[in-house]
Amino acid sequence: MEWWRDIYRALREANVRQVVYVPDAGHAALINACMADSDMRAVPLTTEEEGIAMLAGAWLGGERGVILMQSSGVGNCINMLGLMKTCRFPLAAFITMRGQWHEFNSWQMPMGQGTEPVLRAMGVLVETVDSPEDVAVQSQATLHKAFVGMQAGALLLHQRLMPLKTFGKSKRQVP
Amino acid sequence: MSEPMRANDFPLRRREVAKQIHSAGGDELLLVTGLGSPNWDFTVAGDKEQIFPLWGAMGGAISIGLGLALAQPSRRVMVATGDAEALMGVGSLATVAVQSPPNMAIVILDNERYGETGMQTTATAHKTDLSAIAAGSGIILSETIHDQAALDLAIPKMMEAPGPCVFVIKVRAESLPFVLPPKDGAYLKDRFRFALLGDAAIV
Fold it and tell me: Which residue segments constitute the domains of chain A, with CATH numbers given?
């Protein structure tokens, strides 16, 4: 569970200044590292679509930013993603997946399964990483895609990278 | 006149308000204008490259202004939007309050209507007080302006008071001719960046 350090290192190397997020347990260590970094501004959002708009504003002002969120947040961003496409703003989104693999909460399934089709429908280029050793290169590629390739891109962090989440109710689960 | 229709008689007129703010801000002010009438109002006052006018992204104007204000701490950044657009992104007032950018002002031209879609009443025509929401979100300087005298007093604060600050300006509900800025989003983004950043804007 140290792959988050590879994302953090990639953000620093890419000179990312604004890190906007709605928290996810899978991003918790990365968020803490960004909060502690005096070169970065970590901004908690009330909903993910604010973050898409904020990154557009950051780019207008000459700064690079990224958004960290959980897959369920993608549904909250759909219309705002049109802003990035219409104006050709760069976007780098790091999305921790739910509703994908060993998911104990069935309420997470619909948006988890819808995440990639929704992003693609809105013109976002999508990559998935499911092994810790690939997180570094995939993170670098996502940032390159945004700030060198001038594209909207998202990196989906597969649920198998995360510890299994049970809310301590495992003994009540049917095998 | 019934209470939800009271805005039909508000004394302040949105295009005059926009002209006054536009003139006071000059070319130093960086402006994000929200989807719909505020965009047309500031186009009447004078389209220019220091304005990023929104043709979509409803609910996003305040957040765009926040990202810009954090990126450009030495410049005054103003978001000028409408009541319906602000209501759609109302949580962003909390996000702004927490970040507390001292260079950011938010102006809400509140005609208590959805102006582009048939002048249906918004929540502010009935119960909702946007400056109270801003204050409750943690924005210290938040006021509602009803007349010219109050507007005259508020304009220097919009340009210089330590932010973030919110000014809800009650304007008459009126349907006015469309006066449109350029529409191509990539052009609007690039002209704004080039005016602000010079050659560094070219990637």
Answer: 4-161 (3.40.50.970)
Interface membership of B25 toward A (CB under 8 Å): no
Judged by a CB distance cut-off of 8 A, whether residue B100 touches chain A is: no
Collapsed DSSP state (helix, strand, coil) of residue B137: helix
Contact B67 A47 (CB under 8 A): no
Q: How do residues A101-146 score in pLDDT, each as one tens digit? A: 899 999 999 999 999 999 999 999 999 999 999 999 999 999 999 9
Q: Which domain holds residue B15?
A: 6-196
Instruction: Express the helix, strand and coil content of chain A in percent, nearest 5 each.
Output: 50, 20, 30
| B24 contacts chain A (CB < 8 A) | no
Q: Report the distance separating Cα B62 and Cα B5, nearest Å.
A: 27
Q: Is residue B203 assigned to a domain? A: no
pLDDT value at residue B31: 98
Give the per-residue pLDDT at A171: 52
Q: Domain containing B89 — which CATH number?
A: 3.40.50.970
Give A52 to chain B, closest Cα distance, Å. Answer: 8
Q: Would B139 be classed as within a structural domain? A: yes
Residue in A57, A79, A88 closest to B66 by CB: A57
Please give the tally of structural domains in chain B. Answer: 1
pTM score of the predicted model: 0.96
Comparing CA positions, the residue from A124, A129, A117 lying closest to residue A157 is A129
B190 → chain A, closest CA residue? A60
Q: What is the pLDDT of residue B1?
A: 58
The answer as to whether B1 is a domain residue is: no
The DSSP string of B113-153 is EETTTT-EE-GGGTT--HHHHHHHHT-SEEEEE-SHHHHHH
Put simply, the answer to whether A53 touches B64 (Cβ < 8 Å) is yes
Out of A44, A49, A54, closest to residue B66 by CB? A54
Residue B174 within a domain: yes
